[in-house]
Specification:
Elements (H helix, E strand, L loop, with lengths): L10 H40 L7 H13 L2 H13 L7 H29 L14 H5 L2 H67 L3 H20 L5 E3 H18 L4 E7 L7 E3 L4 H12 L6 E10 L2 E9 L10 H14 L4 E7 L2 E9 L5
Parallel strand pairs: 2-4
Antiparallel strand pairs: 1-3, 4-5, 5-7, 6-7
Length: 373
């Protein structure tokens, strides 16, 4: 695991990852710069306080320690690069040896730099030993601390990388779930369309057989509008309620042409709700169910009523017709797909009920109100 770009699955993910990794590295280096500056200040303050009675210049002592530790920003950048080229997870001998050699080299160079800076600035005045008194132990003594710092920086790099990868994997998983849901919804929508198309074409052929050509032409025109609507909105899961109601009206006009002496309909929608988002073709299966089990089986006039209204922060869609629910209830493709689509889009936050209300059958959809279609 290192601060490196994972292999992308698509051009969009490639671009996102190329933008994310450098941004994470820059942010890490900015935090590291602030950390080493603070580390140097704290170290300098501690040393100055411990030698308070010696009368050392506090500005010189603090400046020396800041210069000693802030330069660790360069090894930090090097560790990020090495972590990219020699990942230590899973553990392998060569990367571990490589990091060990790097830690030792950085430790020696930083120790020599610190000694050289001390001899130049002489922050401890006369207490600073001359160059002739410097021994090998003075160079090697800080190596253990340098090793600890190297491991701390490496651990921080791995932690940041792990967090970034976790977020990327979470985003990828969410995108995959969304893609699977869209594919499932599209499959359900495709099941509805042939069913509706078959019924409408069958009705048109019936009109042609009885020489009701004008009605058949109107039905063909209405069917063309419905098919155009479906094609124009292919791939979209939600549309404005106003668009959905307009197409539902075309559908009901087609059905009214089939049953001119047995069917009437009304559609009532509050003007403020026309931009509310609803699943595409969500009302058509309910209206088709009302026509098939209400109008088609009735020997007298049957009124299909469609209504949309806001109840608190919810959107209620109703389709009502005179009829009786069969017992036991057997749901066709349309109603079954309606439940599946609502479950896929809203989880448990949507409700569909088909109930008997006196002499009428009521199909009720209860959805979260969303004005962002």
């Amino acid at each position: 695991m290192a601060l490196q770009e994972p292999l992308p699955d698509s051009p969009m993910s490639m671009l996102a990852m190329r933008q994310t990794a450098p941004m994470s590295t820059r942010r890490f280096l900015l935090v590291a710069a602030a950390f080493w500056l603070l580390f140097g200040l704290v170290a300098g303050i501690q040393v100055w306080i411990s030698m308070l009675t010696h009368g050392h210049d506090p500005v010189l002592v603090l400046g020396y320690h800041v210069m000693v530790w802030w330069v660790w920003l360069a090894p930090t950048a090097l560790i990020i690069s090495l972590a990219r080229r020699m990942p230590v997870a899973p553990p392998r001998l060569l990367p571990i040896l490589g990091h060990g050699l790097a830690a030792t080299a950085i430790g020696l160079l930083h120790s020599l730099y610190s000694l050289g800076l001390m001899l130049w600035l002489r922050p401890y005045d006369r207490m600073t030993a001359p160059l002739s008194d410097i021994q090998l132990s003075n160079v090697l003594a800080p190596i253990l601390l340098e090793w600890v710092l190297y491991l701390l920086v490496l651990g921080a790099v791995l932690a940041v990388d792990y967090g970034r990868r976790s977020r990327e994997h979470a985003v990828e998983a969410a995108e995959l779930r969304r893609s699977l849901t869209d594919a499932r919804l599209h499959a359900l929508e495709l099941q509805i369309q042939p069913h509706f198309l078959f019924n409408t074409l069958n009705a048109i052929s019936g009109l042609v057989r009885v020489s009701r050509k004008d009605e058949a032409i109107r039905m063909i025109a209405g069917l063309a509008d419905l098919l155009r609507y479906s094609l124009d909105h292919a791939g979209r899961q939600r549309v404005a309620l106003g668009e959905e109601v307009e197409m539902l009206t075309r559908y009901l006009e087609i059905q009214q042409t089939r049953f001119p002496d047995r069917m009437s309909f009304s559609v009532t929608v509050d003007a403020a709700l026309r931009q509310a988002a609803v699943p595409i073709l969500i009302l058509q299966p309910l209206a088709e169910n009302a026509v098939r089990h209400g109008v088609d089986r009735s020997g007298s006039m049957n009124h299909v009523e469609v209504r949309a209204r806001q109840v608190d922060d919810r959107l209620e869609l109703e389709v009502r017709n005179r009829g009786t629910i069969a017992s036991p209830v057997v749901e066709g493709i349309g109603l079954r797909n309606t439940r599946e689509r609502l479950r896929a889009l809203y989880g448990n936050d949507a409700r569909f009920e088909l109930t008997q209300s006196g002499e009428h059958v009521l199909a009720l959809l209860d959805l979260p109100l969303d004005q962002r279609a």
